[in-house]
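In this section we walk through a basic example: taking a raw amino acid sequence and producing a predicted 3D structure, encoded as discrete structure tokens. The instruction is simple. Fold the sequence below.
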Amino acid sequence: MTITNPSREEIGEILEKAKRIAVVGLSNNPERTSYMVTKAMKDAGYEIVPVNPTIDEWEGIPAVKTLKDIKGHVDIVNVFRRSEHLPEIAREFAQIDADVFWAQLGIVNEEAYHFLKEKGYTVVMDRCIKVEHALTKKK
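The resulting token sequence is shown next.
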């Protein structure tokens, strides 16, 4: 795969600037990775927008069914869906007011990556936002 992520310094700048994270595939099951990672980001001060058609809310925050249902600007769209779903999510991402497309650790799709990069978006794939946040905050 020919995926090139931003440098750790650039990722740190993204996380420093970001305020609002939409989380696609966020589970309301506390034992799921998406729940644990997102809870850590919420506890770190980020506003979370749960995006999952199968839940009504997460941690008391109303969920939306799709990215297009979000009102207002989104800094990061953090994706917890299997790699084969990324092209569809990337196309929806390109239709909303968002800055960074972030696919969690183990999630990579070259088609989605190239689609978004050709449109000028910042793309991070196969990285855990919680880990990156912890690493960049230690400096």
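Looking at the output, two observations stand out. Helices lie at 8-17, 33-43, 86-93, 110-118, 129-137. Residues 8-137 form a domain with the Rossmann fold fold (CATH 3.40.50.720). In the next section we compare this with other chains.
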